Structure formats: structure tokens, C-alpha cells
């Protein structure tokens, strides 16, 4: 695989790029952004392509507040379970 800067077709590809750029200039801004996002995605390394959809899913877990809430809920239910067992054994004794 030859890098583009070392390729003999570099000028042909540059002309295609210039043609696409001139076509993008007369398109709607949102459509141009969509095309550029797709192009950016295609240029990403494979690992980042795989991880990109998961970023949206995992982004809420990057804040401390979510972790505090999650751990508090788990601790509450564990404590409630232990108290339920303790009270049950205590009531059974009497």
C-alpha cells in the first residue's frame, strides 16, 4: 500500500478533491457537514471506528454523579436486604 503523498495518482486525486469541494460549496450547509462527518469517520483507524458508537452509550458513566447514584442505590438495596434478614431472625427468636 502506497501513501498518497508517494503515489503517482496524487494529482488525479487532488483534482477529484477540488471538484468535490466545489460541489460541496453549492450544497446546503447541513448536507456538507454530513458528508464531512462520513469522510472523517472513514479516515479513522479501525479501533476508533469500533469504539465510536459506544462513546454515546458510555458517556453518562463518565460523570461522578452517575457513579455516586449507582453505588448509593446498590448500597441501599444491600443494606435493606441485610436489615430484612436481621429483623426476620430477630422476630423469629421471640
Structure, described:
This protein is mainly α and 94 residues long. It contains four helices and no strands. The protein has helices at 10-25, 29-43, 46-58, 64-93. The model has no long low-confidence stretch (mean pLDDT 89).
Care to give the gist of this entry?
The chain is built from four helices and no strands.
The first-to-last residue Cα distance is 82 Å
Total DSSP helices: 4
Residues in helix, %:
over 70%
The low-confidence runs, each spanning 5 or more residues with pLDDT under 50, are none
Integer average pLDDT = 89
Structural class given helices, strands, pairing? mainly alpha
Shape: rod-shaped
Instruction: Indicate the radius of gyration in whole angstroms.
Output: 28 Å
Q: Order of helices and strands, N to C?
A: HHHH
Largest sheet: none
% residues in beta strands: under 5%
List how many beta strands DSSP finds. 0
What descriptors fit this protein?
mainly alpha, 79% helix, 0% strand, 94 residues, 4 helices
Any chance you could write out the topology, listing elements then pairs?
Blueprint: H1 10-25, H2 29-43, H3 46-58, H4 64-93
Amino acid at each position: 500500500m502506497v501513501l498518497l503523498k508517494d503515489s503517482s495518482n496524487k494529482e488525479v486525486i487532488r483534482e477529484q478533491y477540488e471538484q468535490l469541494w466545489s460541489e460541496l460549496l453549492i450544497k446546503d450547509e447541513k448536507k456538507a457537514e454530513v458528508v464531512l462527518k462520513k469522510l472523517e469517520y472513514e479516515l479513522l483507524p479501525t479501533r476508533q471506528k469500533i469504539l465510536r458508537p459506544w462513546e454515546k452509550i458510555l458517556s453518562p458513566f463518565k460523570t461522578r454523579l452517575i457513579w455516586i447514584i449507582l453505588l448509593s442505590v446498590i448500597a441501599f438495596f444491600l443494606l435493606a436486604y441485610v436489615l430484612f434478614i436481621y429483623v426476620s431472625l430477630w422476630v423469629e427468636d421471640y
